Amino acid sequence: MPPDLTIALCLRDDESRLADMAAAAVEVAECLIREHAVGEWAERTREEALIDTEAEPGRDLGLSFELLALDESSRDNTLSVLSILHARHRQLRTLQGLERGTAVMRAARSAQGRVWLLVDGPFEHEHGLWAARQVFCGDRAAIVPGEVLAVTRNLGQAALGWLGGGLVSAQREVTQMLESHGQRPAWSPPRDQALRSRARLFVRGRLSRFGLGHYDR
What we know:
- The protein has helices spanning about 15-35, 45-50, 80-90, 105-110, 125-135, 155-160, 165-180, 195-210, and strands spanning about 5-10, 65-70, 90-95, 115-120, 140-145, 150, 185.
- By secondary structure, the chain is an alpha/beta fold.
- It has one domain: Spore Coat Polysaccharide Biosynthesis Protein SpsA, Chain A, CATH 3.90.550.
- It has a 7-stranded mixed β-sheet with strand order 3-2-1-4-6-5-7, sandwiched between helices.
- β2, α3 and β3 (about 90-95) form a beta-alpha-beta unit.
- α1 runs parallel beside α3 (about 80-90), α1 packs across α5 (about 125-135) and α6 (about 155-160) crosses α7 (about 165-180).
- The N and C termini lie far apart (about 35 Å).
């Protein structure tokens, strides 16, 4: 079976931040696995999917995940760091040499999980955990503005498969698609966000509005 969760790391010259991003991603996945194993939450659609595929008796029913690193033409040592991470994390897949502003789009075309968590910089693992859990438990999308986006596979493919731009553009596109059907994503504002970060998020949003989404990082 394909993995239950894809965590997509959208990278651009991110050598100094990559290790922290990967560590937070793995922590999110492992927390979700532990929570699901002890019954803290259950995903009905997952059990239905297992029945539909006639999973054999004794099959491991624990959550599974993949890490997807999407590298936009890095000019630093990101590839060297990725090679080290590959040795540590067998779940890691890498797409390299992507054009600027295409990492989210390529994630939407490559992710195998039924739930996706997309990030493009360091993030609080609690925020990633909250967003992914919300989607596993029934929301179609969950957003922490400028930090994380979690979506179902179907929504992600529909909203992001042709998107040019970064995370903020993706958050906006998913929100607009849901609103066009009378729905909204789960939303949580980032805590203790500095004024500089708020200003950066505002600028990214404005770039997205004016068709400059590939600069929204």
